[in-house]
Design brief:
CATH superfamily of the largest domain: Class I glutamine amidotransferase (GATase) domain
CATH class of the largest domain: Alpha Beta
CATH architecture of the largest domain: 3-Layer(aba) Sandwich
Structural class: alpha/beta
Strand content: 15-25%
GO biological process, one term: methylglyoxal catabolic process to D-lactate via S-lactoyl-glutathione
Helix content: 25-40%
Protein name: DJ-1/PfpI domain-containing protein
GO molecular function, one term: glyoxalase III activity
Shape: flat
Largest sheet: 7 strands, mixed
Family: Belongs to the peptidase C56 family. HSP31-like subfamily.
Radius of gyration: 28 Å
Pfam family, one: DJ-1_PfpI
Strand order of the largest sheet: 1-5-2-6-7-11-10
Length: 689
C-alpha cells in the first residue's frame, strides 16, 4: 500500500470568498503555511509526500477563504508518493489539484525562509518522506516557535514527525502530556514499512510523554489539544484541517433561559439579546454555540418579535429558519472553561432559571479560568449567585450594567419579577453603571462585561470580543533632548513591536510620559536606519505617534503586556520613581513587562516587594556600554545603562554589538537594541501564554 501520508501547496493563494464551517466564517484572512517533506526515499524505499495530506487540507483552507502558502524542507518541486495517486488512493482533492496543474506543488520555497509566527496555522503534511527530514532540531524549533507565539500547529499522519524534536519553554518534550494522533504502529505494520522507518512514530511520541489518541486503523481520527491539532492518517487529513481552523477561532457559548413564564406572566428570552450577539460573534469569525438551562427549543418572548421591537438581527435569524434557537443542549452539559466567551442573554424568563447556584457556579468557573463572561439586560441574573474565590459575591466592587429599576417600572413588571435586579446587585456590592432608560449602555470590568437592556446587546457582544484580545500598552519617552543632544524615541522600537502585537490580534494602545506627540529621533528614520515597520507606520500617517495620553493616566494592571520602547530620550524621563512604580505594579499583578534598548531605563527605579531592586538576579538585555561608545554618547547619557543595571544586581545578557539579542526571565522580557525590537515583542507575546 506504500506510503499513506501527506502532500503540499504553494502560494500565496487567496480564495475570493469565505465558506462557512459550523455556521461560521472561519477562514477569512487567516494565513496558513503548509509544510511538506522534500525526501524522495527512506532507507531505500521510494516515497515522498502523500498527496491527500497536502491537497485535502489545502482545499479546506482555500475554500474557507484563507491565504495559503506551501513550502518544503529543501525547496523545489515536492516529491509525491506515487502510491498516493494510484486509482486506489487518489481522492477528489488530488484530482482537483491535478486539474489545476499541480501548481502549488512545484518550485516551493524552503521552510527555513519563513517566519512561522506570522501565520495563523502551520500545517505539517505527512508521507513517509517526513521520516527523513521532519525529525530535526530545525523543524522542532519551528513547531516550538509557532506554538510559543500562540499560533496553531497541525500535523497529520507522519507529519507528526515534526513534533519529535519540538521543545516546551522549559526544555522538556513539547508533546509531554499532550493528546496526539499520528500514524499508528498497527498501520505501519499493515503497510509493511516497520523495518524501513527510522523509528515507530507512535511509540516514539509515547516515550516522549504524549497521550496517544489511537483510532482503529484507517479511521478518520483527529484530536485537538489547545493550539496543537493532529490527525492519524490520510483519511484524517480534512478533519485535521477543519479542526485547525476551528482552533484559530474564538469559541463562544450563548446561554439562554428556558422559562416560558414568570409569576403568571408569559415571557421567555428576548430575541435581540440572543440574535444581536450571535451575529456579532458569527460575523467576527467565531465558533458559536447556543444552549439553554433546560435544553430544547428556546422560548422567545412574543413581545420581542413584534413590529415594534423586531430588529434586523431578529429578521436575519428568522430568514435562516431560527435554527440556532431549536433543540438546544443544556448548559450543564458544557465545560464553560473551554470557551473564550460565555454570554448570558436576557429576557424576563431568566428571572426564573438564572439566579441559581448552578448558573452562578458556571459564571464563577469561567471567570476563574480567565474566560470572558458577558451578560445583557436580565441576563445579569446569572451573576446573583456567582461567588468569588473567597466566597464573597463575585460582583462585589465590580462595575455592572443591567436592566434598571426604572426600566422595570416602565415595562410594568416590578410586581412580577422575584426581585429588582439592579437593587439586588447593588446589595451584593456591585457598582451599578446606569444609563438613561433604553440607552445603549454597556461596561467592561476586566473579563466581566455587561449591558443594560436589549439596545445594549450588540455593544455588549463587541465589548466581550474586545475583552478576549491581549491588551498591550506601549510606553514611549516624551523627551526631545538629552544633555544638549537632540533625540527622542527610536522609531523601530515603537513601530516594530506595534505591528508584532497588532498583527497578532492584540488590542494596542500607545502612551508617553508627558503625553502629546511622540518625539522621534531623526536619526532613526534616515535611509540608513528606517525599517519596513517605520515605512508602514509612515504610510498610515504616523497616527499612533500623535496626541498620546500620559502613562500616569493608565492602570498598567489591566494590560497583558506593558512594553517600554527605547531611544535616548528615555534616559531623561524613564529612570524615575513613577515609571519604576508602574513596572513594579505590572509585574506584581503577573503582567508581562518588556523593555527594549534604552527602554530598560524603566527598570532602574523598579522595586521588588521587599524593596530591593527588581532587576536583582534577573536576566536582562539592554543597550550595552560598547554600543553606547560606538554611537559616541557615553558622555551624554546620565549613566551607562548596562553598568547601572549590573550594579543593581541584574544578570546582563550581552550579545555582540547590534546583534538581535533578547531574553525572557519569567514575566520580564528585554531586548538589547533596535535590532532586537521585533524579537523582544514576540518573546513578550510568548510570555503571556
Amino acid at each position: 500500500m506504500g506510503n499513506l501520508c501527506g502532500a503540499p501547496q504553494k502560494g500565496p493563494i487567496v480564495s475570493t470568498s469565505a465558506k462557512s464551517m459550523n455556521g461560521q466564517e472561519t477562514g477569512a484572512s487567516k494565513k496558513v503555511l503548509i509544510v511538506s517533506t522534500s525526501a524522495k526515499s527512506m532507507n531505500g524505499h521510494e516515497t515522498g509526500a502523500w498527496s491527500e495530506e497536502i491537497c485535502g487540507p489545502y482545499y479546506v483552507f482555500k475554500d474557507a477563504g484563507c491565504s495559503v502558502e506551501v513550502c518544503s524542507i529543501a525547496g523545489g518541486d515536492i516529491p509525491i508518493d506515487k502510491g498516493s495517486v494510484t486509482d486506489q488512493f487518489k481522492t477528489e482533492n488530488d484530482k482537483r489539484m491535478e486539474s489545476e496543474g499541480n501548481f502549488v506543488l512545484k518550485g516551493t520555497p524552503m521552510l527555513k525562509d519563513f517566519d512561522v509566527t506570522t501565520y495563523d496555522i502551520v500545517f505539517f503534511a505527512g508521507g513517509h518522506g517526513t521520516c527523513v527530514d521532519f525529525p530535526t532540531d530545525a523543524v522542532g524549533a519551528a513547531v516550538s516557535k509557532a506554538l510559543a507565539a500562540d499560533k496553531v500547529v497541525a500535523t497529520v499522519c507522519h507529519g507528526s514527525m515534526a513534533l519529535v524534536h519540538a521543545k516546551a519553554a522549559d526544555g522538556t518534550p513539547l508533546v509531554k502530556g499532550k493528546k496526539i494522533a499520528c500514524f499508528t504502529d498497527a498501520e505501519e505494520a499493515q503497510v509493511q514499512l516497520t523495518e524501513k522507518v527510522p523509528f515507530l512514530l507512535a511509540t516514539k511520541l509515547k516515550s516522549l510523554g504524549a497521550i496517544l489518541e489511537e483510532g482503529e486503523p484507517w479511521s478518520d481520527t483527529a484530536v485537538i489539544d489547545g493550539k496543537l491539532v493532529s490527525g492519524q492518517n490520510p483519511q484524517s487529513s480534512v478533519k485535521c484541517a477543519k479542526l485547525a481552523l476551528a482552533a484559530t477561532s474564538k469559541k463562544v457559548l450563548i446561554v439562554s433561559t428556558s422559562a416560558k413564564s414568570m409569576n403568571g406572566h408569559e415571557t421567555g428570552a428576548w430575541s435581540e439579546e440572543i440574535c444581536g450577539p450571535y451575529y456579532v460573534f458569527k460575523d467576527a469569525g467565531c465558533s458559536v454555540e447556543v444552549c439553554s438551562i433546560a435544553g430544547g427549543d428556546i422560548p422567545i418572548d412574543k413581545g420581542s418579535v413584534t413590529d415594534q421591537f423586531k430588529t434586523e438581527n431578529d429578521k436575519r435569524m428568522e430568514s435562516e429558519g431560527n435554527f440556532v434557537l431549536k433543540g438546544t443542549p443544556m448548559l450543564k452539559d458544557f465545560d464553560v472553561t473551554t470557551y473564550d466567551i460565555v454570554f448570558f442573554a436576557g429576557g424576563h424568563g431568566t428571572c426564573v432559571d438564572f439566579p441559581t447556584d448552578a448558573v452562578g457556579a458556571a459564571v464563577s468557573k469561567a471567570l476563574a479560568a480567565d474566560k470572558v463572561v458577558a451578560t445583557v439586560c436580565h441576563g445579569s441574573m446569572a451573576l446573583v449567585h456567582a461567588k468569588a474565590a473567597d466566597g464573597t459575591p463575585l460582583v462585589k466592587g465590580k462595575k455592572i450594567a443591567c436592566f434598571t429599576d426604572a426600566e422595570e417600572a416602565q415595562v410594568q413588571l416590578t410586581e412580577k419579577v422575584p426581585f429588582l435586579l439592579a437593587t439586588k446587585l447593588k446589595s451584593l456590592g456591585a457598582i451599578l453603571e446606569e444609563g438613561e432608560p433604553w440607552s445603549d449602555t454597556a461596561v467592561i470590568d476586566g473579563k466581566l462585561v455587561s449591558g443594560q437592556n436589549p439596545q445594549s446587546s450588540v455593544k455588549c457582544a463587541k465589548l466581550a470580543l474586545a475583552a478576549t484580545s491581549k491588551k498591550v500598552l506601549i510606553v514611549s519617552t516624551s523627551a526631545k533632548s538629552m544633555n544638549g543632544h537632540e533625540t527622542g524615541a527610536w522609531s523601530e522600537e515603537i513601530c516594530g513591536p506595534y505591528y508584532v502585537f497588532k498583527d497578532a490580534g492584540c488590542s494596542v494602545e500607545v502612551c508617553s510620559i508627558a503625553g502629546g506627540d511622540i518625539p522621534i529621533d531623526k536619526g532613526s528614520v534616515t535611509d540608513q536606519f528606517k525599517t519596513e515597520n517605520d515605512k508602514r507606520m509612515e504610510s498610515e500617517g504616523n497616527f499612533v505617534l500623535k496626541g498620546m495620553p500620559m502613562l500616569k493616566d493608565f492602570d498598567v494592571t489591566t494590560y497583558d503586556i506593558v512594553f517600554f520602547a527605547g531611544g535616548h530620550g528615555t534616559c531623561v524621563d524613564f529612570p524615575t520613581d513613577a515609571v519604576g512604580a508602574a513596572v513594579s505594579k505590572a509585574l506584581a499583578a503577573d503582567k508581562v513587562v518588556a523593555t527594549v534598548c534604552h527602554g530598560s531605563m524603566a527598570l532602574v527605579h523598579a522595586k521588588a516587594a521587599d524593596g530591593t531592586p527588581l532587576v536583582k538576579g534577573k536576566k536582562i538585555a539592554c543597550f550595552t556600554d560598547a554600543e553606547e561608545a560606538q554611537v559616541q554618547l557615553t558622555e551624554k547619557v546620565p549613566f551607562l545603562l548596562a553598568t547601572k543595571l549590573k550594579s543593581l544586581g541584574a544578570i546582563l545578557e550581552e550579545g555582540e554589538p547590534w546583534s538581535d539579542t533578547a531574553v525572557i526571565d519569567g514575566k520580564l522580557v528585554s531586548g538589547q537594541n533596535p535590532q532586537s525590537s521585533v524579537k523582544c515583542a514576540r518573546l513578550a507575546l510568548a510570555a503571556t501564554a
